[in-house]
């Protein structure tokens, strides 16, 4: 019998754990942070109730690379380990401790979009399609061989809130899709074509500033890309910071509060003002 472990501390990871059982799979071990860690982390969850209900041994540790974690994986005799929704970087030793390796998810169609800020970049680049990739983790950045992918079509009006939700649903769907082949040892790994790889860099807070001398199309796209759960696009007027969560383009002068660009007007449908 194939033995699978799971590492997470956020709701998305727990949803994927639940999906494993919905696909008639089982977990031999769950690993999470100590209860007093990452309490303010977005989506932070505790696995105790689920693990107790499913009789899954639960191991808690301060860091994924600690000796107690590696020892627990060895003791559980894991074939595969999932790491999903986890910010600590796993060491080579940790990745290679399960007999077959460690699996992770990335919210692009690898090898496109290796790196950071996958949801904002997909919108900012105006892509027609993005997706989620399940792949075997190695020491590179999103470079390991691919297990499977799910595509997500993008409309011209999609925002970060909507895409974030679609990405989460795709994680769950992909887990349900591949668990049967993992459990019967029939998965096939496909090496990534590095000649097709693109790297998406991390984004800094100042990258969210709307260029008032730029294009209205770019400004509207930035608003969609940085709305919730991200901090929002922004601009400054009269020593006040305006954070914009929703906006739309008009070509003729609108009556509502708006920004004027050379190629149109950006109507601010949802924003807040922060005094500086």
Number of E-type strands: 13
Question: How many helices?
Answer: 7
Order of helices and strands: EHEHEHEHEEHEEHEHEEEE
Query: Helicity level, as a percent range?
Result: 25-40%
The CATH architecture classification of the largest domain is: 3-Layer(aba) Sandwich
Biggest β-sheet: count, sense, barrel?
7 strands, mixed
CATH-defined fold name of the largest domain? Rossmann fold
Catalogue the unreliable spans: none
Q: What would you give as the CATH superfamily of the largest domain?
A: Formyl transferase, N-terminal domain
Mean pLDDT metric: 96
Structural domains: how many:
2
Q: Provide the spatial order of strands within the biggest beta sheet.
A: 3-2-1-4-5-7-8
What is the rounded distance between the termini?
A: 61 Å
Strand content: 25-35%
Supply the helix-strand structural class. Answer: alpha/beta
**Overall body shape:** elongated
Key attributes of the depicted protein:
28% helix; 276 residues; Methionyl-tRNA Fmet Formyltransferase, Chain A, domain 2; 7 helices; 4-stranded antiparallel beta sheet; alpha/beta; elongated; 7-stranded mixed beta sheet; 13 strands
Summarize the topology.
Blueprint: E1 4-7, H1 11-22, E2 29-33, H2 48-54, E3 58-61, H3 67-76, E4 80-83, H4 92-96, E5 101-106, E6 114-115, H5 118-124, E7 129-136, E8 146-153, H6 160-183, E9 199-200, H7 216-226, E10 233-237, E11 240-250, E12 258-261, E13 264-275
Parallel strand pairs: 1-2, 1-4, 2-3, 4-5, 6-9
Antiparallel strand pairs: 5-7, 7-8, 10-11, 11-13, 12-13
Helix pairs in contact: 1-6, 5-7
């Amino acid at each position: 019998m194939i033995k699978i472990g799971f590492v997470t501390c956020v709701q998305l990871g727990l949803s994927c754990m639940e999906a494993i059982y919905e696909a008639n799979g089982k977990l031999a071990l769950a690993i999470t942070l100590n209860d007093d860690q990452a309490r303010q982390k977005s989506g932070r969850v505790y696995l105790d109730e689920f693990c107790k209900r499913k009789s899954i041994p639960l191991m808690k540790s301060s860091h994924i690379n600690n000796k107690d974690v590696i020892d627990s994986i060895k003791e559980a005799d894991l074939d595969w380990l999932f790491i999903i929704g986890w910010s600590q970087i796993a060491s080579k030793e940790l990745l290679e401790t399960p007999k077959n390796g460690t699996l992770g998810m990335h919210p692009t169609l690898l090898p496109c979009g290796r790196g950071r800020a996958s949801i904002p970049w997909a919108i900012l680049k105006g892509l027609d399609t993005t997706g989620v990739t399940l792949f075997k983790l190695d020491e590179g950045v999103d470079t390991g061989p691919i297990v499977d992918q799910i595509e997500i079509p993008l409309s011209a009006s999609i925002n970060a809130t909507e895409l974030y939700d679609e990405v989460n649903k795709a994680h769950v769907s992909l887990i349900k899709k591949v668990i049967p082949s993992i459990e019967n040892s029939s998965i096939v790994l496909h090496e990534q074509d590095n000649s097709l790889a693109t790297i998406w860099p991390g984004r800094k807070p100042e990258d969210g500033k709307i260029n008032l001398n730029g294009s209205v199309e770019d400004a509207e796209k930035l608003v969609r890309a940085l709305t919730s759960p991200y901090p929002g696009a922004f601009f400054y007027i009269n020593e006040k910071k305006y954070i914009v969560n929703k906006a739309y383009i008009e070509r003729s002068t609108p009556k509502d509060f708006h920004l004027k660009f050379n190629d149109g007007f950006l109507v601010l449908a949802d924003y807040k003002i922060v005094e500086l």
